[in-house]
Design goal:
Number of domains: 2
Number of strands: 3
Largest sheet: 3 strands, antiparallel
Structural class: mainly alpha
Strand content: 5-15%
Length: 125
Amino acid sequence: MSTENISIAKAELEIMRVIWKAGEPITSTEIGNIVENKGWKRTTIATFLARLVEKGMLNTERRGRSLYYTAKVSFKEYKKGQALNLIQNVFGGSARDLIVSLAEEDTFSEEEIAELRDYFNDRRK
């Protein structure tokens, strides 16, 4: 599933992070217990979950009276889709321009630069 065109709000992303981290089916009550510091009501969490199901990010499974949620899209797939979206929409399709933009802001540590260099050198082989 391509996630390039899926737009999720920051709060929805926080819910997704809980589900990704759980790694197994999880109920809205369990999600609520994890994000209780946000002060979100049960209805707010239910709204976020319904939106995420609608957007194709979650699967649901009814077990008795409870609805369990699992990620339909992995975190890796989501990150890749969002990165491709950023490259297309902001950097005109140029991954190079994205990297240059990040490098110009001293975003990378020396360790990250070395890791990237090794990564690209390995890709050439």
